[in-house]
Amino acid sequence: SAVISQKPSRDICQRGTSLTIQCQVDSQVTMMFWYRQQPGQSLTLIATANQGSEATYESGFVIDKFPISRPNLTFSTLTVSNMSPEDSSIYLCSAGVSYNEQFFGPGTRLTVL
Amino acid sequence: GESVGLHLPTLSVQEGDNSIINCAYSNSASDYFIWYKQESGKGPQFIIDIRSNMDKRQGQRVTVLLNKTVKHLSLQIAATQPGDSAVYFCAERGSGGYQKVTFGTGTKLQVIP
């Protein structure tokens, strides 16, 4: 198993600003992912964070809006850029050695005013 | 203020009874089907998975059934306990080179003491 921590746990931000969310894993993992989850709804995959190369984004998500870094096997960041109220959501990091059994962080609850 | 999400389907079960949570999936080419549990304020937690060439798999107190004919997946929880109260998501993993996991809509399980 892997323990995933995220910082910050929550934040309230102003429209037009950017927020960087950090994800730390307690062991080396092959895969890291970033998801978005509206309260009471399902998870939507934003992108796969690839070590040392550009992330793989899902349809509807672009690098300019959600730049992702993964400098090593245990750490990744997601930036939500030029935020609007529509970006208010819970952002979740997950990691694992297989696609099936992903270990999730506690999430970052973002509110954009 | 915070947006209100969609109301999840809710299943209420008496403590000690068995729970059955159902899920319909859409992609007949999915290779694996997975169940996750999400407690309030936490990230999802892997429960069990089943490969597409199987129709049943058992874990500790849980059984997953797969009916590919009607594209239906179910999670059975034996002797439901208050700690089982959570939102349960089914997910499917694609086959081939890009095996991303797509989460379905969740079901909220409420255990009545």
Mean pLDDT of chain A: 95
The largest pleated sheet of chain B is described as: 5 strands, mixed
CA(first)-CA(last) distance of chain B: 33 Å
The Cα radius of gyration of chain A reads: 13 Å
Structural class of chain B: mainly beta
Number of helices of chain A: 0
Strand content of chain A: over 45%
Mean of residue pLDDT of chain B? Answer: 90
What is the element string of chain A, with H for helices and E for strands?
EEEEEEEEEEE
Q: Between the first and last Cα atoms of chain A, what is the distance in angstroms? A: 37 Å
Low-pLDDT segments, ≥5 res of chain A: none
Rough shape of chain B?
globular
Number of strands of chain B: 9
User: Percentage of helical residues of chain B?
Assistant: under 10%
Oligomer: heterodimer
Number of strands of chain A: 11
Please give the radius of gyration of chain B in angstroms.
14 Å
Task: Give me the strand/helix succession of chain B.
Answer: EEEEEEEEE
